[in-house]
Design a protein that fits this description.
Elements lengths: L1 H17 L10 E4 L10 E4 L4 E5 L8 E2 L2 E2 L2 E5 L4 E5 L9 E4 L5 E4 L19 E4 L12 E2 L15 E4 L5 E4 L16 E5 L7 E2 L1 H5 L8 E4 L5 E5 L2 E6 L4 E5 L6 E2 L6 E5 L10 E6 L1 E2 L17 E6 L2 H6 L2 E4 L8 E4 L5 E4 L2 E8 L9 E6 L4 E3 L9 E2 L14 E5 L5 E5 L19 E4 L9 E2 L5 E2 L4 E7 L11 E7 L2 E3 L2 E3 L2 E4 L2 E3 L5 E5 L10 E9 L2 E2 L3 E5 L10
Parallel strand pairs: 36-46
Antiparallel strand pairs: 1-34, 2-3, 2-39, 3-6, 4-5, 6-7, 8-9, 9-10, 10-11, 12-13, 13-14, 14-15, 16-17, 17-18, 18-19, 20-23, 21-22, 22-24, 24-25, 26-27, 27-30, 28-29, 30-31, 32-33, 33-34, 35-37, 37-43, 38-41, 38-44, 39-40, 42-43, 44-45, 44-46
Bound molecules: 2-acetamido-2-deoxy-beta-D-glucopyranose (NAG) (5 copies).
The site of one 2-acetamido-2-deoxy-beta-D-glucopyranose has 5 residues, from loops.
Pfam family, one: Glyoxal_oxid_N
Protein name: Glyoxal oxidase
Keywords: Signal
């Protein structure tokens, strides 16, 4: 395998240069949308086949609702237009996910209000509910909040949250009220939504990983346990036994959580074993010291670290490889063919706002990285990361940026605001421009999944009608069917994002696709999912389904 790849590569290159007049193959492209996001889209989550929810802090954003600045909005993926959402509590630096019944829950946030906007209530114990929205335009769909009766057990600003095996949310860490660079006011505990008990669960791991343990990077593993990385430390947490197993540190003094943000991803899971592997990229090789001794020019690390979460893999420890450049605050996002997009971030500095002595404008980070890379998990070590053919953006996406895979199969990129409130006059000013990053296949004839059942049962064989372009029907075509959670993007981390490949075949007449759903909610937590059919790296638009019963959490089906 290794040998044949090496020998093919130079052939490709010389063929391309020998035929300069041949029509150019479609390439990855950035495309700027006409309409802006209206609020700084520092958090984003796809909530329906056509709608993305954006959240900002309660601030002086230009988008207005009920005679005040909005800090929530719905982005329509079909029309590329924005509609404000009325939010009661301050959603600044919150997290969230979709639950097993399709409802989006946004949790935690900023305790403060904003001068000139009296509507705001503290967000650090908030639970914001967006029920499943059947309207393609979001008409009539609103957020529900009732802070007096519906709230978290603890105050959490900068928490992480993921959907777990029973379709509920596990909520991890955060700070109470003071967020001055490092976590100096920590809530070192876990809780659930809906709650499983009346008190929080203290976490020794979060104690040990102070002071850079905000927005821990956490993943639901296919056995129901949860992998967590914060600062330079990692564990597996057993929810059912309430025990932690300590794993090796991230090598070489690299730290990867806020305010020293790297990013992390659970690599695609494949049948029959669904062996979990985690990849952690970027961050900074530094010791946590007083921010007044750090610099916006401190180089970010290019290190990626990868571990297989089996007893042998854990004994072997983290395997180190390198991105093409250092990145702080990159984001890692699944591509439906099993590759990983590495985008956003800067070449130097830190997250947060104006704490280093030499901010650029108000940004603790500098040298935005404008060219995305692609990570191919099954290539040999040292050959997995490339930016060949990737476009160059002109828009910095540093602190408070977001990116999400859409049901259409492209990426929506927005945000950037390393400033207190909206500031249009500094370098790295508040960013309202929205881009898509479009894979080459959007310019080609794509396969189509014509319809699917609304709900899919676990461990079942499902046949759906498809339409295949003639050119993708040849013998030996590479077929991939991905069941995906598109995740929740906040602070350079895509929580709950998941790609589970399904065994699949195409009928002899090429008119139907049969796939086998995951065995249970541990492999794919019950809830909304998007199915993508990829043939020879050409991906269909996604089909939006409910994996499991659609029951409210907790549910085991
Ligand atoms: C809207 O807000 C402005 C300034 O805060 C105020 O002067 C005006 O009366 C408000 N209008 C309504 C309809 O509430
Ligand atoms: C992780 O951080 C701790 C605390 O700063 C440090 O003592 C330890 O050496 C680091 N581990 C690695 C592998 O660099
Ligand atoms: C990308 O664009 C920036 C700014 O226009 C430029 O400085 C940089 O050299 C470009 N990088 C590549 C790889 O083309
Ligand atoms: C924008 O940031 C600069 C640099 O900190 C500051 O001097 C200026 O007052 C800010 N502008 C606004 C509108 O806050
Ligand atoms: C889903 O479950 C959550 C948590 O119990 C609840 O708040 C929400 O109303 C439920 N949504 C639906 C559509 O049943």
């Amino acid at each position: 395998m290794k040998w044949s790849l090496l020998s093919l590569l130079p052939l490709f290159v010389s063929f391309a240069s020998a035929a300069p007049s041949a029509p150019e193959a479609p390439k990855w492209e950035f495309n700027l949308k006409k309409e802006t996001s209206g609020i700084v889209a520092l958090e984003s989550i796809v909530v329906s086949p056509t709608l993305v929810v954006f959240f900002d802090r309660a601030s002086n954003d230009p988008l207005q609702i009920n005679n005040h600045s909005a800090w929530g909005a719905l982005w329509n993926l079909e029309t590329s237009t924005v509609t404000p959402l009325d939010v009661l509590t301050n959603s600044f630096c919150a997290s969230g996910a979709l639950l097993s019944n399709g409802t989006m829950a946004s949790v935690g946030g900023d305790p403060r209000g904003f001068v000139g906007n009296p509507a705001i209530q503290p967000g650090n114990q908030a639970i914001r509910i967006f029920e499943p929205c059947a309207s393609p335009t979001g008409a009539g769909c609103t957020l529900f909040e009732d802070p007096a009766t519906l709230h978290l057990l603890a105050k959490r600003w900068y928490p992480s949250s993921i959907r777990i095996f029973d379709g509920s949310l596990l909520i991890v860490g955060g700070t109470h009220v003071n967020a001055n660079f490092y976590n100096v006011d920590p809530e070192n505990s876990f809780e659930f939504f809906p709650p499983k008990e009346s008190t929080v669960r203290p976490s020794a791991f979060l104690e040990r990983s102070l002071p850079a343990n905000l927005f821990p990077r956490i993943f639901a593993l296919p056995d129901g346990k949860v992998f967590m990385v914060a600062n330079n430390q990692s564990i597996i947490y057993d929810i059912e036994a309430n025990t932690e197993t300590i794993l090796p540190d991230i090598p070489n003094n690299v730290r990867v959580t806020n305010p020293i943000d790297g990013s992390a991803i659970l690599l695609p899971l494949s049948p029959p074993d669904y062996t979990p592997e985690v990849l952690v990229c970027g961050g900074t090789q530094t010791d946590p010291i007083d921010p007044s001794l750090l610099s916006s020019q401190t180089p970010a690390t290019s290190q990626c670290s990868r571990i297989m979460l089996t007893p042998e893999g854990i004994a072997k420890g983290w395997q180190v490889e390198h991105m093409l450049e250092g990145r702080t605050m990159p984001e890692l996002v699944h591509i439906p063919n099993g590759q990983v997009l590495i985008t956003n971030g800067g070449g130097s500095g830190f997250a947060a706002i104006s704490q280093v002595p030499d901010p650029v404008g108000n940004s603790n980070a500098d040298h935005p990285v404008l060219v995305p890379s692609i990570y191919t998990p099954d290539l040999p070590l040292g050959r997995r990361i490339s930016n060949a053919g990737m476009p160059n953006s002109t828009i910095a996406r540093l602190y408070h940026s977001s990116v999400t895979l859409t049901p259409q199969g492209n990426f929506l990129i927005a945000g950037n605001n390393p400033n207190g409130d909206v500031n249009l006059t500094v370098p790295f000013s508040s960013e309202f421009r929205v881009q898509t990053l479009d894979p080459p296949f959007v310019q080609l004839n794509r396969p189509t999944i014509l319809s699917t059942p609304k709900n899919l049962k676990f461990n079942s064989r499902v046949t759906v009608p498809i339409d295949l372009p003639l050119e993708l029907t040849g013998p030996g075509a590479k077929l991939q069917v991905a069941l995906m959670d598109l995740g929740f993007s906040s602070h350079a981390f895509h929580s709950s994002a998941r790609l589970v490949f399904m065994d699949a075949t195409i009928s002899a007449n090429r008119k139907s696709l049969t796939f086998v759903t995951p065995p249970n909610g541990r492999v794919f937590p019950p809830g909304p999912a998007t199915i993508f059919l990829t043939i020879n790296d050409v991906t269909s638009p996604g089909a939006w389904v409910m994996m499991g019963s659609g029951n409210s959490p907790p549910t085991l089906e």
